[in-house]
Design a protein that fits this description.
Layout (H helix, E strand, L loop, with lengths): L1 H9 L5 E12 L12 E12 L4 H11 L3 H7 L10
Antiparallel strand pairs: 1-2
Helix pairs in contact: 1-2
């Protein structure tokens, strides 16, 4: 949604956006780019396909914008869950 709104605002010829996600677990010790080095980590691999006559530069910018969407930022930030009895 964020990518489509950005493209629309720029007047870019984006027809559709398709996203594929794959979820897996991996040992933290095997993750080179992770701060956590103990236990298991959730890994999400994401593929994004843009359809429409976009330039390479436009597609690259849309990939950057995808990393700024609220859902992506929530999933990549530290998450604190508080549970209470109601």
């Amino acid at each position: 949604m964020t990518v489509a709104m950005y493209a629309r605002r720029k007047g870019w010829p984006l027809n559709t956006v398709t996203v594929w996600l794959r979820h897996s677990k991996e040992y933290a010790a095997d993750c080179r780019d992770c701060d956590t080095k103990e236990g298991m980590l959730d890994r999400i691999d994401r593929d994004i396909q843009f359809s429409g006559p976009l330039t390479t530069e436009q597609k690259q910018r849309l990939l950057e914008i995808a990393d700024k969407c609220p859902i992506h930022r929530t999933l990549t930030s530290e998450i604190d869950i508080s549970t209470r009895d109601v």
